């Protein structure tokens, strides 16, 4: 594969970045942190869609300042076997597309599937050998021996043999060990002794009982039995009917006699009552007359009493006169009034002149008086005295007046009461004179009432006798009709009794059925036992089948176990992994040597079976790689990187060298510059594509094309 152009947007710190990859060495140059490695990461993301760092999510590749919902994307144009391809992935890994010749894919999974085929090397090789930081791969050579072994295992893939061995051990431990044979023997014995022989015997017995039951006419026998039993029931019913009829007819005689007796009683009572009727009517008429007389007598007595009370009222004395003459009383009032009037001039004089001086005319004598206030004082005394006197007279007159009013009212009331009494008395006397003096004979009324009551009693007796008579007659009629119905039923039952089976026929039918029932019960019992035995047989056969399968499985398991054991031995660290490691190491050592020669290194190198790395210098002397100088280490590191690439990933066609000069001081950098010239020649010779990422400006001379970031 050859990379042609990578365009990234919103990827890590790159808003927009396009890197062209012409043939030969492309150098990506720039200060630390500018985004060189991230540009390579973008290529890697386009190819396999991963984040490039353990513990980093793909999402983290999105430019941190990108707007929400805006996803970074990488587009990579490449060429594979003369066909151009274009792959585009979005950082949120929601979408991806690929176009490669005829192939077109538009989903992440489809793109991944196709890319796996197009790349042609395992994804893991791509990660561990092509895109790995140079420092990380170099370190394998200079690690502590124990860690080195692990890294070589990873590189050579022998770690999977180790894992496989552990897995096989677990599997072997899980395999079942079954004691099948003993169970098979036990089940077979049960089948041969307890199941099959009784099954055969019972089947035979079942056939013989079934044959005996064949041809037995059950219906005919059941019919005989049913008929016989019905006849017995009918016989019972007939006996009951007979008893009932006898009871109805024998009890009827006294009842008939009783009816006749009652009839006689009813006739007698009727005769007697008809004789008594006129006497009773007469007594009732008299009684009603007597009743009227009693009521008139009671009215008369009431009115008499009332008349006496009214006469008492009339006899009451008239009210006593107070001895006051109305005319005199009114004249007194008038005289008092005129005296009060005569006093008025003096009173007004007092009001006007009280405390006054000078001469005034006297209102009574009409003479001039010189000392008005004296006269006023005199008049005042006089007015006061007269007023007291007038008040006493006025009081007396008023008392007399009210006594007179009371008297007149009493007289009026008395007159009215006596007038009413007189009027009522007159009307009472009128009524009394029309009633005349009435008398009432209670004894006669009593005698008459007895006659009437006696008659009513007799009528009641007659009614009772008649009621009883009609009740008995109805009862007798009911009994007769019942007797008739019963007799009819007897006739129909007797008809049913014709052609009844004999007791002997009945007994034979019954015995036959009993015999069949016991045969059937036996058959049922046999069938039950057969059912159980067959079930058990089925279960045993099933279990035997299972055990047989299990035996087969156990055989397979045994083989599998054997295989596992052998595979485990094979995969043991001392066996297959060692073989593989040795084989890889042989090839790797040849390759390393080739590159060291290519780079003009003054030493050779060999990785031994125990994974120690030893270097040989021409003047003799062997030393371990850790002892090499910084510059020599870089040369060995690059040779090792190319050797590994050649061994495992040469088919890919391109390689990335990220920071080959990391942690080197200047003179050592110089040795890298020199090596890179050899690398350049090699790259041009082989046609492989190399991308070098570096912050070291001096390496630019070795690049065919430089991208500055
Ligand atoms: N998603 C991202 N958005 C913005 N910057 C990022 C993002 N991921 C990594 N970076 C920045 O990239 C820088 C490292 O870039 P890198 O390519 O490794 O540098 P160098 O050029 O030394 O190889 C870090 O400083 C980090 O802040
Ligand atoms: Mg870097």
Automatic annotation (TrEMBL):
Recorded coiled-coil stretches: 259-313, 462-489
InterPro entries: P-loop_NTPase, RecF/RecN/SMC_N
A Pfam family this chain is assigned to: SMC_N
Keyword tags: Coiled coil
RecF/RecN/SMC N-terminal domain: residues covered: 3-708
Protein name according to UniProt: RecF/RecN/SMC N-terminal domain-containing protein
Organism listed in the record: marine sediment metagenome
Lineage, top ranks: unclassified sequences, metagenomes, ecological metagenomes
């Amino acid at each position: 594969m050859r990379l042609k152009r990578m365009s990234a947007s919103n990827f890590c710190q790159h808003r927009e970045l396009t890197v062209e990859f012409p043939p030969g060495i492309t150098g990506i140059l720039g200060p630390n942190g500018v985004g060189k490695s991230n540009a390579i990461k973008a290529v890697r993301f386009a190819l396999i869609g991963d984040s490039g760092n353990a513990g980093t999510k793909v999402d983290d590749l999105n430019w941190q300042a990108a707007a929400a919902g805006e996803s970074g994307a990488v587009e990579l144009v490449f060429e594979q076997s003369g066909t151009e391809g274009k792959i585009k992935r979005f950082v949120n890994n929601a979408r991806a597309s690929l176009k490669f010749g005829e192939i077109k894919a538009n989903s992440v999974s489809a793109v991944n599937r196709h890319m796996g085929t197009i790349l042609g090397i395992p994804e893991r090789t791509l990660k561990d050998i092509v895109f790995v930081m140079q420092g990380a791969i170099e370190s394998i050579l200079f690690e502590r021996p124990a860690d080195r072994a692990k890294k070589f295992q990873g590189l050579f893939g022998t770690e999977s043999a180790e894992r496989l061995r552990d897995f096989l051990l677990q599997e072997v431990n899980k395999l079942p060990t079954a004691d099948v044979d003993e169970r098979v023997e036990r089940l077979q014995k049960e089948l041969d002794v307890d199941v099959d022989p009784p099954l055969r015997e019972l089947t035979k017995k079942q056939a013989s009982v079934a044959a005996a039951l064949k041809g037995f006419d059950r219906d005919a026998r059941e019919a005989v039995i049913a008929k016989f039993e019905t006849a017995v029931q009918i016989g019972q019913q007939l006996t009951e009917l007979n008893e009932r009829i006898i009871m109805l007819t024998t009890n009827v005689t006294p009842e008939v006699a009783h009816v006749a007796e009652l009839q006689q009683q009813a006739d007698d009572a009727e005769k007697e009552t008809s004789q008594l009727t006129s006497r009773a009517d007469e007594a009732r008429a008299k009684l009603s007359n007597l009743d009227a007389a009693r009521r008139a007598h009671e009215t008369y007595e009431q009115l008499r009493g009332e008349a006496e009370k009214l006469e008492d009222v009339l006899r009451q004395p008239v009210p006593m006169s107070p001895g006051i003459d109305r005319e005199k009383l009114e004249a007194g009032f008038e005289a008092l009034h005129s005296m009060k009037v005569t006093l008025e001039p003096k009173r007004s004089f007092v009001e006007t002149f009280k405390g006054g001086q000078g001469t005034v005319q006297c209102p009574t004598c009409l003479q001039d008086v010189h000392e008005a206030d004296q006269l006023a004082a005199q008049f005042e005394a006089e007015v006061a005295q007269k007023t007291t006197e007038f008040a006493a007279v006025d009081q007396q007159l008023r008392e007399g007046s009210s006594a007179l009013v009371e008297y007149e009212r009493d007289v009026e009331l008395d007159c009215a009461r006596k007038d009413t009494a007189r009027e009522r008395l007159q009307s009472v006397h009128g009524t009394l004179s029309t009633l005349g003096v009435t008398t009432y004979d209670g004894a006669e009324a009593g005698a008459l009432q007895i006659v009437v009551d006696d008659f009513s009693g007799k009528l009641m007796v007659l009614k009772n006798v008649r009621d009883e008579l009609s009740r008995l007659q109805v009862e007798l009629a009911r009994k007769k009709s019942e007797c008739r119905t019963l007799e009819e039923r007897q006739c129909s039952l007797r008809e049913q009794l014709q052609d009844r089976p004999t007791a002997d026929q009945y007994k034979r039918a019954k015995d036959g059925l009993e015999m069949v029932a016991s045969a059937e019960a036996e058959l049922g019992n046999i069938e039950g036992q057969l059912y159980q035995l067959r079930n058990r047989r089925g279960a045993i056969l099933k279990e035997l089948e299972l055990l047989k399968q299990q035996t087969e499985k156990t055989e397979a398991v045994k083989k599998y176990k054997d295989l596992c054991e052998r595979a485990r031995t094979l995969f043991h660290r001392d066996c297959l992994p060692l073989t593989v490691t040795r084989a890889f190491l042989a090839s790797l050592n040849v390759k390393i040597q080739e590159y060291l020669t290519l780079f003009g290194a003054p030493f050779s190198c060999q990785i031994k079976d125990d994974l120690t790395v030893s270097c040989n210098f021409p003047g003799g002397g062997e030393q371990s790689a850790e002892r090499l100088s910084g510059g020599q280490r870089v040369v060995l590191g690059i040779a090792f990187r190319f050797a590994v690439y050649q061994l495992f990933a040469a088919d890919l066609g391109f390689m990335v060298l990220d920071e080959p000069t990391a942690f080197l001081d200047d003179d050592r950098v110089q040795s890298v510059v020199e090596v890179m010239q050899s690398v350049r020649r090699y790259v041009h010779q082989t046609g492989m594509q190399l991308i070098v990422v570096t912050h070291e400006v001096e390496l630019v001379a070795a690049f065919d094309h430089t991208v500055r970031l």
